[in-house]
Design goal:
about 25% helix, 5-stranded parallel beta sheet, 5-stranded mixed beta sheet, about 20% strand, alpha/beta, 12 strands
């Protein structure tokens, strides 16, 4: 399909573009710098008043066209994309939270590409991380939970694929964030218990997180339904569940003085102590990938990127993977 384009003031052609912008969980100051810049540059700003705080529109140009999509089906939004393709317009399509999660974005991406529009996604702060921040908890506490499951209760408007029942995920016993499920809190509680969470497992019920009328309540899996019904919640509500919401955990290896990576050497005594801890936990005699050698640095003579060996005491090669502190 030929891409629609129109001449700009210099005579050059301009391709239409749609930005799918994550607005974050609610508070306007959680909008990213990139999101604010994109909204400020757009010819057309499309937002849902039912899901996105109006303060986000403060970044829009005075002459920008503002469209509230809260009462529009996809067929009502399509003409905006068609016009953007025909006239070479830039559209900022604002979504609550992060567009990658339950944003109905994929069908819009496919449509825009079929119309010949350029597309780009601007990530946003998700409500599950916002709620974790509100209760002051890490969701991946060392030796307690190292995984976070994002899901929703089956049986809603959108069918769930096989094998994605809440009780199946609950069998892992790790941290779980449940979206779009507050209207059936009794079923959520039953599924969590059936999957193996003890009734006293910590839980958080969060309504309108980071909005002025937010409500965040700590409870347990066994009291989740009662908590939801007590506060008469049924939408805009997120559940966090798992032992990480209360456990203190153990010390992370990442900041242990015995842990080394590209930018930091390990203290030999602390390295030996950390090695003993790992051996006790795994029953192995060696740390994987580091057999013998100096406990305070990567082994002398270990192959470096490109096939050469590092001389004893020589610093790591620039660009070498920096270890787990680079993740996330």
């Amino acid at each position: 399909m030929t891409t629609a384009a129109n001449p700009d003031s210099t005579g050059a052609t301009t391709m239409g573009k749609v930005w799918f912008v994550g607005a974050g969980p609610g508070a306007a100051d959680l909008l990213t710098l990139r999101a604010a810049r994109v909204v400020g540059a757009a010819d057309v700003v499309v937002w849902a008043a039912s899901l996105v705080h109006a303060d986000v529109l403060a970044h829009a140009r005075p002459d920008a066209e503002i469209v509230d999509s809260s009462q529009l089906p996809m067929e009502g939004v399509r003409p905006l994309y068609e016009r953007a393709a025909a006239q070479g317009l830039t559209v900022a399509r604002i979504h609550s939270g992060d567009p990658a999660l339950w944003g109905a974005v994929q069908e819009q991406l496919d449509l825009c590409r079929a119309l010949g529009l350029a597309v780009e996604i601007v990530p946003g702060v998700s409500s599950f991380t916002a709620v974790a921040a509100l209760v002051g908890r890490e969701l991946t506490v060392p030796e307690v939970a190292q995984s976070v499951i994002l899901t929703r209760l089956e049986g809603g408007k959108t069918p769930m694929p096989a094998g994605e029942r809440v009780r199946d995920f609950a069998r892992h016993g790790t941290t779980m964030a449940l979206f779009l499920s507050a209207a059936r809190s009794g079923q959520v509680q039953a599924e969590l218990l059936a999957g193996g969470y003890p009734a006293d497992t910590p839980a958080v019920v969060a309504y309108q997180a980071t909005w002025p009328d937010e409500l965040v309540v700590r409870c347990t899996v066994g009291t989740l339904e009662a908590t939801v019904k007590e506060h008469r919640l049924w939408k805009h509500t997120l559940f966090l569940v798992g032992p990480a919401l209360a456990a203190t955990g153990t010390r992370s290896h990442l900041y242990h003085p015995g842990h080394f990576h590209t930018f930091r050497r390990a203290e030999p005594a602390a390295r030996a102590e950390l090695r003993r801890r790992r051996e006790g936990a795994t029953g192995t005699a060696e740390i994987p990938g580091r057999p013998g050698g100096d406990p305070g640095r990567p082994d002398a003579g270990e192959a470096r990127p490109g096939g050469s060996a590092a001389a004893p005491g020589q610093p790591a090669v620039p660009g070498e993977p920096a270890g787990p502190e680079r993740a996330g």
